[in-house]
Amino acid sequence: MKKITFVGTGYVGLVGGAGISEFGHQVTCADIDQNKIERLKAGEIPIYEPGLESLVKKNVAKGRLHFSHDVPKSIQNADIIFVAVGTPQGSNGEANLSAIESVAKTIGENLNGYKIICTKSTVPIGTGKRIEEIIRSMNPNGDFDYVSNPEFLREGAAVKDFLHPDRVVIGTRTQKAIKVMGEVYRPLYINETPIISTTVETAEMIKYAANAFLSLKISYINEIANLCEAVGADVQDVARAMGLDGRISAKFLHPGPGYGGSCFPKDTHALAATGQKNRSPLLTVEAAIKTNASQKVRMVDKLKRLMGGSFKGKTVAVLGLAFKPQTDDVREAASIVIVSNLAESGATVQAYDPIAIDNFKNHFPNIQYYDSWQDAVKNADACILLTEWNEFRGMDLNKLKDLMKTPVLLDTKNIISIQELESRGFTYDNVGRKSPS
Ligand code: UDX
User: Which residues belong to CATH 3.40.50.720 in the chain?
Assistant: First the structure.
């Protein structure tokens, strides 16, 4: 059993802290935000993530998971410190490392005996070295090893991804640190999860290379979808047949309104910026970024075409605000670009999402929000579906048609049957399937 502190109780820190306490270790999740810590101590989970609340409650009850706003003391008490603070995108595309640097200083000031300092946040390649330098400059004789242990958590499936990962990457320089990290992840060793041992820089690169590749895959299928529309092909069949080739795989070949979320947009920009800085540009990643931005705008153009060329004075129902299902996160979601275009063009927006409305209100306080899709579509001139929530998959199309002023639907996730829309007389469009005649 190890004594472990997570610094940062955001998405990564909370899921990681709860997950590692589930492995049997003593974990403290520490944060300088006293209010957040008080809420956590009171049993309130500040993010929506399936399975997280019960995992936290269980491990708090077992006495393995604690919360503290005393970051220095939590560092002093731990054998291993996981750094899990945010690395938001700065104005130049590069990640903003001020929170990471501030934690490194606090660690340097509070090193009392051998510790492992392990970064979980996604940080640009070379940051590990910088963190080590900061700690050394604060504490030249400090006894520590540095580890890069990137997370590969999907929002909405993060607990599962943490407890049953495809692989664990441990980047470090010493055998001692590899051994200690092996003890941290012992239950995964028993499950025969691949544990990849690398240098710090390689581990940092793996995270970016994986996320950028998935982003490329999505942008690629989105461009193929767009071309399918022009040549009269069906992207669903194209993607399915492509995916049956084991070298390609069927995953992440779903076309849509462009990827969003807290990772892909930020990480592709950061990797592209690292490429430029090192005079080794990543032209494919730069192209994926551009394709993704234009895909979001393309949805606005499609909707406008369906509605006869103008949004002015029209009412549009927006179904789905989250960047994907099973999350209330709206960061970089296609909904933001689309709603802002609609609002600027003089449309009335009637929005619904099962759980992301509160977060969306921070961006758009003045549009109309409803508690059900049935209410949101009432008297709408058109409806745009942006997130593949299950309740939209099973939508009663007769009811939808009855409630709307005119039956016009843009299904950006290709979840509604074209035949069913046609048989009910909808004017419709989608991404890369049969185009409206
Ligand atoms: C991603 C990575 O999957 C995860 O490993 C990493 O640690 C963080 O970034 P996440 O952002 O939570 O996770 O969501 P993900 O499920 O990967 O989806 C990202 C975006 O891509 C969503 O907007 C989703 O709708 C979109 N997407 C995904 C597609 O448009 N098509 C696909 O085929 C798959």
Answer: 3-198, 295-429
Element (H, E) at 427: strand 427-429
Q: How far is the CA of 39 from the centre of ligand 1 (A)?
A: 29
Superfamily of domain 3-198: NAD(P)-binding Rossmann-like Domain (3.40.50.720)
As a whole number of angstroms, the distance between CA 307 and CA 292 comes to 23
pLDDT at 190: 84
Taking the model in full, what pTM does it have? 0.93
φ and ψ of 383, to 5 deg: -130, 135
Which residues does the annotation mark as catalytic? 263
CA-nearest residue for atom 7, ligand 1, is 152
Nearest atom within ligand 1 for CA of residue 253: 33
- CA-closest candidate to residue 110, choices 135, 82, 85: 135
**3-state DSSP assignment of residue 352:** strand
User: How many other C-beta atoms lie within 10 A of the C-beta of residue 62?
Assistant: 11
Nearest atom within ligand 1 for CA of residue 218: 31
What string of H, E and C letters represents the secondary structure of 47-106?
A: CCCCCHHHHHHHHHHCCCEEEECCHHHHHHCCCEEEECCCCCECCCCCECCHHHHHHHHH
The CATH architecture to which 295-429 belongs is 3-Layer(aba) Sandwich (3.40)
Token digits for 406? 């005119």
- Please give the distance, rounded to the nearest whole angstrom, from the Cα atom of residue 263 to the centre of ligand 1: 8
Task: Name residue, tokens 């185009």.
Answer: 435
Question: Is 345 within 8 Å of 337 (Cβ atoms)?
Answer: no
Report the nearest atom of ligand 1 relative to the CA of 263.
Answer: 9
How buried is residue 357: exposed, middle or buried, by Cβ count under 10 Å (0-12/13-18/19+)?
A: middle
Res 92: pLDDT: 74
**Which element (helix H / strand E) includes 238?**
helix 235-243
Q: Supply the pLDDT for residue 217.
A: 98
Low-confidence ranges of the chain (pLDDT < 50): none
Instruction: Quote the pLDDT of residue 336.
Output: 98
> Element (H or E) spanning 351, and its range?
strand 348-352
Cβ–ligand 1 distance for 252 under 6 Å, the answer yes
Closest CA to 125 of 239, 270, 322: 270
Distance CA 295, CA 310 (A): 19
Mutate to test the pocket of ligand 1, among 218, 299, 329 (most ligand atoms within 8 A of CB): 218
* Res 1: pLDDT: 85
